[in-house]
Amino acid sequence: MHFTQVTGIKKENAIGRIATEVYGGEGAPYFDIYSKVAMSGKSYSFNMYYEPMDKYFMTSVVSPRKNRFATITRDITEIQQKQEELNSKNKELENFIYVTSHDLRSPLVNIQGFSQRMINQAIELGNLIQECELNGEIRSNIEKIMRDDIPKSLSFITSNVYKMDALIKGLLQISRTGRMSLVVQQIDMNQLLKTIVANYSFQLTEIKADVSIKNLTDCYGDENLLNQLFSNLIGNAIKYRDTNRKLVIEISSHKHFSKVIYSVKDTGIGISSKNIEKIWNVFYRVNTSTLEPGDGLGLSLAKTIAEKNKGKIWVESEEGKGSTFYVELQRNKFTE
């Protein structure tokens, strides 16, 4: 009954006939996959679009015994359509963020430039006033405005322009990351993490931190993006360290079916339970009084990168004790 519901083909029209006769296709497009499973005994799963039925299927191929195969197929047309709608909306959002952020930078540059010009003009005006004959009270009031009030107002404008410019650059960075194409390859994670830690060697030496990298399982993904992801995690461990105790960072991994899960554990200040979900939000900072400035983009970008590489990221943390960030990535090659 389920077969008929999915395919629209009656049982009596399928039993005893070959697949190309039943489904109306030309040739056997997946026979190479099926024969490999039959000969090797290794199961395999894949998604496909079958044009004769105009449907998407998820097919699992198994070998019940040597030189035999069986397929289990599930209709995922509705799921695929929803996924494509979601991907389309995400691309629209990414493009909107990119265009809006790009266009906002132009007026900001003008505000920044004219603010600097006004600072210079205020200095010139102050020098000219010095040459004018004015009574004591008027001169005192003008000098106060020129010396204190105007520079303070312009300083407030320029500092906020710089802050807004940094936020826009952050949005552009997240947008570009979401829009860029992946270069998927097998990655030597031991080498990647050693390189990242080496890049932080000065900061780690200065604070006398200990970093241990256990033997890591390789994964598949975009090496440049994953470099950025793990760099952000190491950088955060340094930034949010507890100055009252030694910083220890432990990096390890374990296999989980077709995935590999990496953990980055630190002895930092930790994250309170009320902030756990918020840390992935763009520009959110748990602690604005840390030793180093930040824009609250690191974890948002890490989440974007993990998801783009068909993975995910999460954290377990206890305030005052430290945090462990987990990154799940693919052990097998995949397409974007």
Describe the structure.
β2 and β3 form a beta hairpin. It is elongated, with a radius of gyration of 30 Å. The chain is α+β, with helices and mostly antiparallel strands. α5 packs parallel to α9, α6 crosses α8 and α8 runs antiparallel to α9. It folds into 3 domains: 74 residues, 2-Layer Sandwich (Beta-Lactamase); 99 residues; 147 residues, Heat Shock Protein 90 (2-Layer Sandwich). The two termini are 35 Å apart. The strands form 3 sheets. Strands 5-7-8-10-9 form a 5-stranded mixed β-sheet, with helices on one face.
In round numbers, the mean pLDDT is 83
Sheet of most strands: 5 strands, mixed
Give the low-pLDDT segments: none
> Strand percentage, roughly?
15-25%
* First-to-last CA distance: 35 Å
Q: What structural class should be given to the helix and strand makeup?
A: alpha+beta
- How many distinct helices? 9
Supply Rg.
30 Å
CATH class of the largest domain: Alpha Beta
Short description:
This protein is α+β, with helices and mostly antiparallel strands and 336 residues long.
